[in-house]
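pasting for ref
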Amino acid sequence: MPDHPESFRLIPPHGGYRELQSYQMSEIVYDATVVFCDRFISKRSRTHDQMVQAARSGKQNIAEGCMASGTSKKFELKLIGVARASLEELLLDFQDYLRQKGLALWGKDHVKAKAARGLCYKKNRAYKTYKPYIEDSSPEIAANTAVCVIHQTNYLLDQQLRALEKDFLKEGGFTERMYRVRSRAREWTRSK
């Protein structure tokens, strides 16, 4: 006999975005971008606003996608994709800044790039972990540190998108879940 109808859960647990590494890293990206832009790009510049908004979009869309996941896997996938696209736009802005200022873009094997990437493994990492690299350094170090953090965040978002895709293919979306729960509830009622 099927489970009791009260145990049929139509809307699964959702949210919990603050525990996601992708969200935590996107928050660091946002904070670093705001500080970088305030330090090195005129507040009257359109680029300043666009970079800050791209960083904000990355962070906020992860949160919104996770909150929407209970009723729409399609919307969650879309918003995580938007977050990933926003951070790619931001990455290009930082790379453009370096190129236009004649500053070096660190390769992944650059000693300083390795040091910046290694910061993500620190326990309780947050913006303050990266603060000296963003607030107390040259534009080259600050921009390259941001590039490293964005690359790491994008990697995490790519992994998250693959997991969401796999889960969607296995479980389906909200409409399919509604059908399964309703069918189980009917079966339970008939078995009584």
